[in-house]
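Hey all, sorry for the wall of text incoming. These are the two entities for the joint prediction.
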Amino acid sequence: AQSVTQLGSHVSVSEGALVLLRCNYSSSVPPYLFWYVQYPNQGLQLLLKYTTGATLVKGINGFEAEFKKSETSFHLTKPSAHMSDAAEYFCAVSVSGGGGNKLTFGTGTQLKVEL
Amino acid sequence: EPEVTQTPSHQVTQMGQEVILRCVPISNHLYFYWYRQILGQKVEFLVSFYNNEISEKSEIFDDQFSVERPDGSNFTLKIRSTKLEDSAMYFCASYTDNTGELFFGEGSRLTVL
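and here's what came out:
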């Protein structure tokens, strides 16, 4: 069974500072990894995903994440935070390919951006 | 851009009442899911559905829950007799290919009083 651990339920950064949200996963088979963002009172929006190939993946809104198999990590970064980035971020894992897949989510990290 | 739509966006019900949450998945998708998120907690898998039957369900998905695809477009989640602890945001999702990417709806917030 797969699982996801997100370190830090709350992260606060200054506007313009680096954003780093941590995600470690556990999976017995090659994982597919995802970051979703949830703005207040809204649904889940896909930021980026890793399936196969290049381990550094770029997503929307300037975010990127790097799959590091040796560290079982998929940390989310953004070079310069913007006020509009304030939201909750969820890391998720699914087993590779096939039908009937399900996502297993982490507990989420609330990102606060301060002036 | 195709999207998953859910209705209602918010429903308030009395404990013990039946509730049906509706979802219209993306039209060419074949796999459908329900997830829930209790306020302040993580998103939890409830059930997956493929080829007109449940393919997997979590321990949360007990006999009070059921899913149905009554026609070619709708995918519903029924809670037979709601409990206070069923209060949550319920998300529908769908996908069709092997990338594992799920497309989520905006959610239906259920409040049980």
